[in-house]
Amino acid sequence: MDVKINYVAVFVAALAMFLFGWAWYMTFGTIWMTYTGMTMEMAEKMSGLDIAKSYGGSFVAYLILFYCLSLVNHAFQVKDIKGGAMSGFWSWLGFTATALFVSYSYQGKAFGLFLIDGGYWLIGMVVGGMILAKMQKKETPST
Questions:
Q1: 97-111: per-residue pLDDT in tens?
Q2: What is the CB neighbour count within 10 angstroms for residue 28?
Q3: How far apart are alpha carbons 111 and 72 in whole angstroms?
Q4: How many whole angstroms separate alpha carbon 9 and alpha carbon 66?
């Protein structure tokens, strides 16, 4: 299988999700903190190393996510932005939303937390899928 991965697109999609996360959790942060039991005092006590590991680890995870979504887009021959959005949506629904729901259910987490975190992943993956589709490398015809 000759897969043409656009690594710039993977990086752009990861960066978009990272920046979107900042805006999303700035918007829903107070509610999210209530659901998770996190307090401002706890957040302020985090060391610079803890924050760097969280942010750096998240960004690496997003790179892996969008690399894999590029493979999915290739396998399903996604050719346009609508296809990229659908790829992101179905990947979110089948893998991310289900995993979050099961984990949160067994942990006794509030459904509102699922809506906040799940909504973040939904929008991030749909937008990321669209970026990957828009920036995909064109296949060269075989002769």
A1: 999 999 999 999 999
A2: 18
A3: 29
A4: 9
Residue whose entry in the numeric block shows the structure tokens 């610079």: 48
For the chain, what are the domain ranges? Answer: 7-134
Sign of CA dihedral 135, 90, 122, 52: negative
Q: How far is CA 31 from CA 36, 54, 99, 112, 121, in A?
A: 9, 20, 21, 9, 17
* CA-angle at 18, arms to 118 and 100, nearest 5°: 20
Residue pair 116/102 in contact (Cβ under 8 Å)? The answer is no
pLDDT surpasses 70 at 141: no
C-alpha closest to that of 85 among 27, 93, 103, 25: 93
**pTM across the whole model:** 0.90
For 70, the enclosing helix (H) or strand (E) is helix 48-75
